[in-house]
Amino acid sequence: MSDFLPIWKAAEIAGGVRALARELNVSPSIVTEWAKKTNPVPIKRCVQLERFTKGEVTRKELRPDDWHEIWPDLLPKGNK
User: What is the model's pTM?
Assistant: First the structure.
């Protein structure tokens, strides 16, 4: 199991896992689960993370396998 770098990046921006957890109103263990890829980042949290990091961590990075199904508006024009 490899680490999920977008979550670690968001945690670094927040000032640590606990700070990120407080920002998202979740437990630090949940953030660690996302970072360790034990559980995927929930769709609702992807938008929060993208906004919180001011786009430094994107929804595409957080949901690399299905972002295009969740947010088809992010697809380049002509690929819908």
Answer: 0.86
